[in-house]
Amino acid sequence: MTRLLGSAHIEVLAREESVRGVLVRTVIKQSEFADEQELELLENSLQLLLKRFQAMDGEAS
Amino acid sequence: MILRSIELESFGRFRGQTVEFRRGLNLVIGPNEAGKSTIAEAVPAVLFGTDCLERFKPWGRNVCSASLFFEGRGHTVEVKRNLLTDEVELVEKDDLYHVRSQFSGKAPFRGRSASCREYRELLEKLIGVADEKLFRATYFFGHHPQSWSGDELALKLRTLVSGTAEADYAEILDTLLDEHFQLTRSNPWGRDKQRDREYETVCQQLSEQGDEGAVPIFVEIDNPARDDSQVALEEEISALTGELEFERQEYEKGQRYIERFRQQADINEEKAEPPAKVEPVKEESLDTKKSLAKKLTTAGLPPSLPPQLPEVLSAAAEIRQELAALQQPFSILHGREKKIPQIPWMVIGCLLVLFVALAAVAFWQPFFKTPLLTAVGVCSVALLAWASWRQINRNKILEQCRKERGLLEQKKGVAQQRQAELSERCDALGLPSSAVDLVRLQKLVMTHRTLLDQYWSATESDDPGIVKGAELVDRQPTSPDSTVSVVEKDLLKDDGAAEELRQLEARLADFAANLQAKETRLEELQAQLKSGRHTPGAAVEATSQQGPLVQEISVKSAMSPLQRRKNDLEDRIVVLRKSINLLADAVDEFSRSHLVTLNAEAGKMFGKITEGRYTEIKLDENMAPSIQVDGRRWTPVDHFSRGTVDAIYLALRMALAKVRDDGRSLPLMLDDPFVHLDQKRLAKTLNLVDLASADGQLILFSHNLDLGKRAARERWHVVPLDGDAVNTTTDEGGEHAGQLHLL
Asked: Which of B52, B65, B135, B491 has the smallest number of CB atoms closer than 10 Å to its CB?
């Protein structure tokens, strides 16, 4: 399964000095210590938020 | 990264022309309709495409293309776009002209194809922005909109720091909260929790159908039903923990007592004294002691008070008196310190200024010059001498007070140290350590001193080993089921040491088993509290950082549509909660890490524009700016004039560009942003713009010819547009036609 976290797009966003950049960095940091279930939740949440930030297509259901 | 040049092959009114820029401040100047905006618009049009092609397509020609050349640290980026076909060529090269990355393909303005995404990702990586609106919001600064209010400005700033041009983070947070609010009444963020929402309705419908999975997993923490059980559980755990703590101590004491008893029994056996002689004495002594203990208990005194009690109580009373006696000197000292008069240095300063003014007047007027000057001088010296003398006296008194306070503090410290030692001693003897309890005990001891003396003498005559053991056990308050009490009773009742010992051990074993059972129960309760599993058939888990507890049920393999809907809603609620928490954390983090810098930078720039009149700008958590007036009060920007608001916005934008600069930032493009500024502020703003451009690149578009004169003076890079041709003028480029000072 393709992971959103770890993709080049996310890495680029994480470099931003904006609220969006801080958000992506926070999620990446939390994902380092997350189990599979928590990781899925983080990915879904990030997808939802990035959609709202107009940073990607689609939205977590 | 700087924009090195724009090649306008066929774009608007330009054909085969190149506009070059330099690091620092660039001024594109020309009359109306000269093509300033066309050049400015060429940048986003080439990077992202455009949906108003007709504006840039040359009349009567079927070609519309332009190229941009960017130069960064160790690499260059060239982007060429045919606006008619949206064919894009992007090439990134290093210093040795080796291609590092490239893209060639279609990338239309609103394209969502794979190639378009690839291009956008590359753009994001290279220049830090892949969205046209965001580019405009971040790097474009024009004279629009026409009016700012504080809220609009805050909104704009929130959008800028959000990293998106579409919505600001506060708006996103609000929409997420609203969505969560619509789904369930279980809301960790307050608001209406009474009315059932979709989730509760679905759960209720499931419940009516008799479905086992109808139990809602999201139950608000302040839900009375859940709260009661939760509180009851916590209370039970708390009570059990306290009980166990006490019983563990009792158990250890019992163990020690039995050990001592066993040792004593061994000693007695070794001594092998005739039991016939000892037993009556012991029996008699035990009877006496028992009756005295009963009397002491009736009098309100525990029978296990140690013989050192009077000494301890006397020491405690002495320390109390000492501490109380220290209160008075402290209060007197405080009063003295308050009475020391302040030296009116402000008045003295004013008087001195007055004297100086008088001296100046006396100096310039023809009569009595010398006497007047002498009088003023004498008065000044006398005033200064008087003030200095008062100040020295004040310092002396203050120093004396400080010394006295130090001595008193020392005494107080010694008394407190003694009190602490006494408390430790009380603890060791099993006595209460609080002052109130000790006073109460002292009164009781004074009343029943004779009885106590009799008890202590009886105890001393008794076997010291057993007494010591009993004392150790009796120090704690006795409880009905206390092993210690039982042990003591058994000791008094039974004669045979072996029999006693056996009974004591049996009692202690029972006690240990009881203790073990309670510990197991406590562990169970703690596990229940942790997992929230105190309702049969349901589980509770903590999911969010706000701490609402949710109950979890097992998912059935065969689910009804209603059940599926419930599960979908639960998933959505969990994702929403997590998203809200993540975003709120990110906003907090951004505020902590960036707002201070942003405020400082913006304040510095704004101070320069306003010539130091306003030097502090503060953005609150909603990015609403306020300006500090007179170095004291903060005033919202709404209260200032249009020009000031424009200036503050410019300062914030430039500060933001500086704060956000990560080495990939594009030049800031200013399209006549100074139309509302007066001449004075315009000059200051230009100074600021000049200063800000020193670290990067700034392209200023203007029709103001006065700016051209200044550009020539300040040696800015100037691109004059005369309506027919584009010329590049540099400070060294005297050879270029159209140099501004010649215009």
From this structure: B52
